[in-house]
From TrEMBL:
Pfam families: RVT_3, zf-RVT. The lineage of its organism: Eukaryota, Viridiplantae, Streptophyta, Embryophyta, Tracheophyta. Residues 243-310 form the Reverse transcriptase zinc-binding domain. Residues 352-474 form the RNase H type-1 domain. InterPro entries: RNase_H-like_dom_plant (IPR044730), RNase_H-like_EbsB-rel (IPR052929), RNaseH-like_sf (IPR012337), RNaseH_domain (IPR002156), RNaseH_sf (IPR036397), RVT-Znf (IPR026960). It comes from the Eukaryota. GO terms for molecular function: nucleic acid binding; RNA-DNA hybrid ribonuclease activity. SUPFAM superfamilies: Ribonuclease H-like (SSF53098). This is RNase H type-1 domain-containing protein.
Length: 502
């Protein structure tokens, strides 16, 4: 696309440039497909002369250039099938996931507030603290009228930070890392006491920490903050039914061309240009079907009920039969290899840990088994806990108590295995997570160098059956139970874990 002044001299210059351009780059301009348009202040006779000089056709307002649409006729009225708020809904709620700029800017500003809280010794945090607030827990408590534009922006962006976060207890004088159950039960009502006891605590954490509960790792992200803002300020136009949500998820996960997905999305919302829809928007068209001319042209009729359309489907060599024929020939892929426990090798010990949670009573069962390099059982432990921890926290506690159990038995050079991949990934990272499980993860990292090789490995559930059985057995116990070199009810599982050559 070339812009130039409407003069003969400039047009001749353009011709000379194009003549030099062609042999150098090997590209020749097709003047027959080219067009020229001029502004309204140029006389039409002069424009025709310039067009003949260049050898191109003259148009009043170009429509397309290299298949790109023109924006010269933006003032013309068009059909808007939906408003912007519907498009900003997530795909799982019936929208297209377009970004709401105001909520997105809030999420970005809240990120700065999050950094002020978690990095209190930074220069920005110290300067703002000396002016606007005295403690980080009351950072967004008030915004005075004389505050700077920067602080007002932080206050505006951090309004929903409190709704999506909470403080994790970390500091205290406790040395055992456990709650005083009797004191908590006497001080709080049962519901509050159970909530407090369901939070793990640690003796190694020195300060409280703000946790973002919209993220499974407790860390703030602009994405999770944006989705939280959309949910709290949800538009009534977004679909909220469970059946609708399942349909949208199924639609966007289908392995079909994107243009087909968009078409099905428009059909689901009844946003296609058919007779009835156009008539509702006061466009003078015939509402009856143009194919059968029998019934009004609705979305359901145009796609499913039109008799002429059904005949066309049957003429297309029965696509339904072809689909079923192809589906019958597809076999499910199955792996012949079965996951099982494998010995760690000579000189090493393997600790398998697992936990189960009884959702009815809130009781947690921990299972720990330690075996030597050839698979011989050295020690087992079943441990019941009346705390109501979540399954993820319970599995982290199983690893922690497994390491402590190995210390009590006097074993070193151990490999730790768990079937919780999230925990195994967290322990590979240097930074502690912000989530409620953070204190437990911190304690595990403190114990790993002294007990094991410093790694916690992920194994499938089938390779962790012995620890799982011990965890389930803990539901029948009132106190811990330990077996040394003998665990009769685990014999069938342990014997099945032995390698074939043994």
């Amino acid at each position: 696309m070339i812009f130039t002044r409407a003069s003969e001299r400039d047009c001749v210059t353009v011709e000379e440039v194009l003549e030099r351009y062609a042999p150098v780059f090997g590209q020749v301009v097709n003047f027959q497909e080219s067009a020229m348009c001029v502004s309204g202040k140029v006389a039409w006779s002069r424009a025709c002369g310039l067009a003949s000089l260049l050898g191109v056709k003259l148009v009043k307002c170009y429509k397309r250039y290299i298949s790109l649409p023109s924006f010269a006729d933006e003032e013309k009225k068009k059909i808007h099938w939906c408003n912007w708020s519907k498009l900003c809904c997530s795909k799982d709620m019936g929208g297209l996931g377009f970004r709401d700029l105001a909520i997105f800017i809030k999420a970005l500003l809240a990120k700065h507030v999050w950094c002020l809280i978690h990095f209190p010794n930074s220069l920005a945090a110290r300067v703002l603290k000396s002016i606007y607030f005295s403690d980080f827990s009351s950072l967004l408590a008030d915004c005075k009228s004389g505050s700077s534009y920067l602080w007002k922006s932080f206050y505006w962006g951090g309004e929903l930070l409190e709704a999506g976060s909470h403080w994790r207890i970390g500091s205290g004088d406790t040395a055992s890392g456990e709650w005083n159950r009797r004191l908590i039960s006497d001080s709080f009502i049962p519901d509050d006491a159970n909530l407090i006891l369901s939070l793990p605590c640690s003796s190694n954490i020195t300060s409280n920490s703000l946790v973002w509960h919209s993220d499974k790792f407790g860390a703030y992200s602009v994405k999770s903050r944006y989705h939280l803002g959309c949910n709290l300020i949800s538009s009534p136009s977004c679909s909220s039914l469970d059946s609708s949500e399942s349909w949208w998820k199924y639609l966007w996960r289908m392995k079909i061309p994107s243009k087909v997905k968009i078409f099905l999305w428009r059909v689901s919302h009844n946003w296609i240009p058919i007779g009835c829809n156009l008539n509702k928007r006061r466009i003078p068209v015939d509402v009856f079907c143009h194919i059968c001319c029998r019934r009004p042209e609705t979305s359901f009729h145009a796609l499913w009920c039109c008799p002429s359309l059904k005949q066309e489907f049957h003429r297309a060599n029965s696509p339904e039969a072809k689909l079923h024929e192809s589906a019958d020939g597809v076999n499910e892929r199955s792996s012949n290899s079965v996951a099982s426990w494998s010995p760690p090798g000579s000189g090493l010990f393997r600790i398998n840990c697992d936990a189960t949670v009884d959702s009815g009573t809130g009781k947690v069962g921990l299972g720990i088994i330690i075996r030597d390099g050839v698979g011989v059982v050295l020690a087992c432990r079943s441990m019941p806990i009346m705390a109501g921890f979540s399954p993820l926290i319970s599995k982290a506690l199983a690893i922690l108590y497994g390491l402590l159990f190995a210390l009590d038995v006097g074993l070193v050079l151990c490999l730790v295995e768990t079937d919780a991949q999230v925990i195994a990934n967290l322990l590979r990272n240097d930074a502690d997570p912000f989530m409620e499980m953070g204190p437990v993860v911190h304690d595990i990292k403190m114990l790993l160098p002294s007990v094991s090789s410093g790694m916690v490995l992920f194994v499938p559930r089938k390779a962790n059956r012995a620890a799982h059985s011990l965890a389930k057995f803990a539901f029948s116990l009132d106190n811990d139970k330990v077996w040394l070199e003998d665990c009769p009810f685990l014999y069938p599982i342990v014997d099945g874990d032995y390698p074939p050559q043994l």
